[in-house]
Amino acid sequence: LYADERGAVLLLEYGGFRVLLPVGMSFDALAKLQADESLPPITALLLADSGMAQTNPAEWINFLNPQVVVLSVSADNLLGLPSQSALDAAGGRTLLRTDANGWIEISSDGSSVWVETQRGGPAPTPAPGASASPTPSDAPAMTEEPAATEEPLLEDPDFTPEP
Fold it and tell me: How far apart are CA 143 and CA 145, in angstroms?
């Protein structure tokens, strides 16, 4: 969707499954994408920059309306990430964190979504002012079937892939 000297924002789509991966998202990319009304809804969103407040404003996350929010951050992050405002912006959505859940795998057949984590289910999001220390829950993370966002692509009956 967007690429510049800071990174890229990737949108992966498969049927009704849509995941947004902002890897090194710049403020220019954020502004451009927030104006794109065709972008939401998103099935899964990777928070940008390990949960930095400036690249994960509440307006952006609410605009995308993801079912699942993924946070890739180390448990010993020296920069104080994730920011409390980015955690608050995730709201009541399912939040999965690598510092609490270990590896996170999200897969889809285009209509259903499966979520698997190394340990525990979604990490609880602390209330504003509470400690942001992650503690995985015991239950595995489950998501609902994503809503279809577009009509399926029709295949060309005369198309034969090259070997």
Answer: 7
CB 111, CB 145: distance < 8 Å: yes
CA distances from residue 140 to 59, 75, 93, 102, 143 in whole angstroms, order as listed? 29, 20, 15, 13, 10
> Each residue's pLDDT tens digit in the chain (163 positions)?
777 888 888 999 999 999 999 888 888 888 898 899 999 999 999 988 767 778 888 898 999 999 999 988 877 766 766 878 888 888 888 889 888 889 999 999 998 998 988 887 655 443 333 344 444 444 444 444 444 444 433 344 454 444 5
What whole-number distance in Å separates Cα of residue 109 and Cα of residue 138? 26
Strand order across the beta sheet in which 17-23 lies: 2-4, 7-14, 17-23, 44-46, 68-71, 94-97
Q: Where are the beta strands (DSSP E) in 100-139?
A: 104-108, 113-117
How many Cβ atoms sit within 10 Å of the Cβ of residue 87? 25
How many CB atoms within 10 Å of residue 48?
24
Compute the half-sphere exposure of residue 56: CA atoms within 13 Å on the CB side of its CA: 29
- One-letter amino acid of 35: A
